Amino acid sequence: MFNELSRIVSRPEPYEFYTAADLWTDEYTSQQMLACHLDDSTDLSSRRFSFIDQSVDWIIRYFDLQPGDSVADFGCGPGHYTSRLARKNMNVTGIDFSQRSIDYARKAAEKEGLTTRYITQNYLEYQSSDYYNLIMMIYCDFCALSPEQRSIMLKKFSHHLKTGGHVLLDAYTLNAYHNREESSRFERNLLYGFWSPNEYFGFLNVFKYDQEKVILDKYTIIEADRTRTIYNWLQYFSIPEIKKEFSDNGLEIECVLNDVAGTPFSDDSFEMAVIAVQK
To answer: What is the predicted pLDDT for the residue at 37?
Structure first.
């Protein structure tokens, strides 16, 4: 028991383990994630629909998107952004790892007669001959990737941009990092049964890595017949750091905002939205 508890509270090296697929491919947790995406009363997995409406209106205006322009949404989930852009007659591609989310998005598009193209794939492995006027990665998905994975994505974005095209994504700031604290928590059926339909015991250990500005939420879920650990990594950025990372991978940030609805940036913000072009 001592050794097992020691393993549960152990601190791994940054990005030593990566288990993002468990959230999206597990039958039960993918169902839970989709329910969170569709819950308009919370910002837990997607922002509220009123904000998304405001965001899409701003995106169309800011980037002067016209009917027929091509847009790619990496990490599209159940299609909150893709469906709204498709209604404005954009040629939209949504890429997501979750088959359940993609199935929902496809059915919703078919019901409305939208021609959105959806791809079930880990976006790190996305390959295509298509080029886009706008590439989006929204709701801080970028922060969940390791430095190596972020480099892959940025190079991919640069490659798939049309001449004059843009990248839009959001990320957590250092203000958000400093607002978090290390902690340990143990509960029966942690997060109200989110992790399993069966009875379980859940441990959550939050670790901060001050040098890297990374936070790990490490969940250990113990059921009668299995034990599993989920590692949720989040990177936090200063503006100079994220500008350098983009520049090192072929993109230049031309604008920093508070959010993907065009709010001007403020120094006390917990998030930032960046707009980038090819160098």
So the answer is: 82
Q: CB of 104 within 8 A of CB of 120?
A: no
Q: 19-49: per-residue pLDDT in tens?
A: 877 777 788 988 888 888 888 787 766 789 8
Q: Considering only CA atoms, which of 4, 271, 11, 279 is closest in space to residue 143? A: 271
Contact 233, 15 (CB under 8 A): yes
CA distances, 165 to each of 80, 84, 132, 162, 182 (Å): 22, 20, 7, 5, 40
Residues 6+ apart with CB under 8 A from 65: 59, 71, 85, 88, 90, 133, 134
Q: Given this model, what pLDDT does residue 44 score?
A: 66
Is the pLDDT reported for residue 127 higher than 80? yes
What percentage of the chain has pLDDT greater than the value 70? Answer: 99
Report the run of H or E that residue 167 belongs to, with start and end: strand 161-173
114: which 2 tokens? 């939208």
Quote the CA–CA distance of 55 and 273 in Å, as a whole number. 11
Distance between CA atoms of residues 230 and 238, nearest Å: 27
- DSSP E strands: which ranges in 129-160? 132-137
Q: Report the C-alpha dihedral over residues 12, 230, 206, 193, rounded to 10 degrees.
A: -160
**266-to-258, 269, 272, 273, 277 alpha-carbon distances in Å:** 6, 6, 9, 11, 22
Structural domains of the chain sorted by starting position, each given as residue range(s) with its CATH number in brackets = 31-174+236-278 (3.40.50.150)
**The model scores a pTM over 0.90:** yes
**Could you tell me if residue 187 is left (phi over 0), alpha (psi between -120 and 50 degrees) or otherwise beta?**
beta
